Amino acid sequence: MELGLIANILVVFAVALVVGMIFNKIKVPPLVAFILTGAIVGPYGFSIIQGQEQVANLAELGIILLLFTIGLEFSFKDLWRIRFIAILGGAIQVALSFAFFGGLAISMGLPVNQAILMGFLFSLSSTAIVLKLLHQRGEMDSPHGSIALAILIFQDLMAIPMIMAIPFLASIPQLESTPFLSGEALINLIIYDLIIVLILIVLAKWVIPRLMHEIAKTRNHELFLLVVILTCFGVAWLVSFTGISLAIGALLAGLIISGSEYSHQASSLVLPFRDIFTSFFFISVGMLVDIRFLAANLWVVIFLIVIAIVAKALIATAAPLALGYPLRTAVMAGVALAQVGEFSFIIAQSGFSTGILPSGIYQMFLIVALMTMAVTPFVIGIGQPVTGWLCSVPALSRIVQGTCGNEENGKAPSRRDHLVIIGYGITGRNLARTASRSGIVYSIIELNPDLVKAARNEGESVVFGDATSDGVLNHGGIPVARIAVVAINDPVATRKIVALCRRLNPSLSIIVRTRYVSEVKDLQALGANEVIAEEFETSIEIFTVVLNKYFVPKDQIETFIYEVRADGYKVLRSQSGMQGSLPDLVRHIPHITITSLTIEPGSALDGITLGGYNLRKRTNLLILAIQRGTETITSLGGETELLAGDIAIIYASPEDLAKGAALFLRPD
Description:
Elements: H1 2-25, H2 30-41, H3 52-73, H4 76-81, H5 83-107, H6 112-122, H7 127-136, H8 143-170, H9 183-217, H10 221-240, H11 246-258, H12 263-287, H13 291-296, H14 298-322, H15 327-336, H16 342-353, H17 359-374, H18 376-381, H19 383-392, H20 394-399, E1 419-422, H21 426-438, E2 442-446, H22 449-457, E3 462-464, H23 470-475, E4 483-486, H24 491-504, E5 509-514, H25 520-526, E6 530-533, H26 534-549, H27 554-566, H28 570-573, H29 584-588, E7 593-598, H30 610-613, H31 615-619, E8 622-628, E9 631-633, E10 647-652, H32 654-660
């Protein structure tokens, strides 16, 4: 039995490794590779794995650990920060998706309980895939990235009541004829909830914090890991007596610890185990995928995949649009959310195991959901061209006034030879304040309505709109401006804005802030005069401090910085470029220290002049300055007298300092 389990794990990991490497080459998320691995080794594939129950047990561990870590990482502070778009935008997206897909299921003849489940499944998107792709594209801090993150957080929260609703949907096979819970079922539900609340209060307030505090005092990582695992599975087991699944119990266990000071340490310890066991869950899902079913229903599957992606993208676009966000931002967020989420697999498996979903519908869902995940990178990739086309349609520009074209009062302000600030984040805000104090005339372009509102509250005149549109740039005065500064967190939009600015004003000086140095050459080729890369500007600040510590002359440091920036940071990108660039002082005196010593009464230097003792010649100690009370003496000569209580600022090597320090001390 043991060897059988080990052999199954070995086969699963070997196939997953090969499939994962292939999928990594074509930029397909690893989650899809895991599901495909299951399809290959499962009963509908090559039937390599015999002990499917063993894999299913490992998969259940993965789900328990997944929900436990989600509970650990959940932060009410983060939700509060993005509460507006998370709660309102997320509620609109989930409600519209649930209504559309649930209604579609009913129109196709499915019972109401199955239709409700379908509404649940297709209203969720993949947090893991979307966040990873946005991070890879450098768009996590972009407006559409923030909106997508907020809606995903709301979806993850909504997955909890959806999972908890599965047993009740399963207990009412004909929901059409019994639309409401019976009195007995309602009483049981209330009792279960009260028991859960009581357990959580006792554990969260008295038991778990005290236990973890005592274990943490031992400074033993093994014991701390044991108490974390015990909390996870113990709470899950206790909650299961109320009829709630182990996975939801684990989520509640994570929430118990999340508010404590030990949540980050607990999360870091559990994370590796979670990733391993979660992979088994998606592999176990893949084992249920019937390739023959796909071949027999290929055109129906393709039709449903297109419907799912298009409908989810349109609905996810409508949510931020309804809240006043620009069309381009809304569309980019919408296409990012146009796939089925990992929680949907958990809900679908629960629905299948409890008998809500028949085998054929379950198969159809698995294949459609898998394909929506697989094509996510390509769907996100076409977001920019789609938004460009939409904003070029005059009818759409009129419908969503201000989100593609101009805004403010309908008239472009009369400015010439001014500064245009594109993006009113931290960089844009600081630049505007500096320009205002310096008497420089400027205009601001921003597409985030929250930032626009904040700027106008500060008395700023802001053009609200998408700067990738000619109309917005014209309204901001780009054709007659002297300088444009692009300071937004969207690399794709930044490139388009630079190209448009250069086309509208060939003599414009364009300064761009970008996060990654890999963008420098492309932006310069598009017409940017200066590109400031955050990655290397931070490095410049650091090595400036370091070179100052090594006493490199300031003029040489400034020359070096100019050379670094003028060459597009090539010196920093190439190891060979650094050779011979720094002055010899850095290499010839690498062990020099500046420190201070107090001249004690009765010491060898008390009452002695610098010339009389000749300290430099005898000890290699150079006194740079003397602090005498509140006075700092820097003009030192041979006649300068050293007095008890003086603090001498000394320049020397550590070895010479150790030898000469006794001269400053009172003799024993």
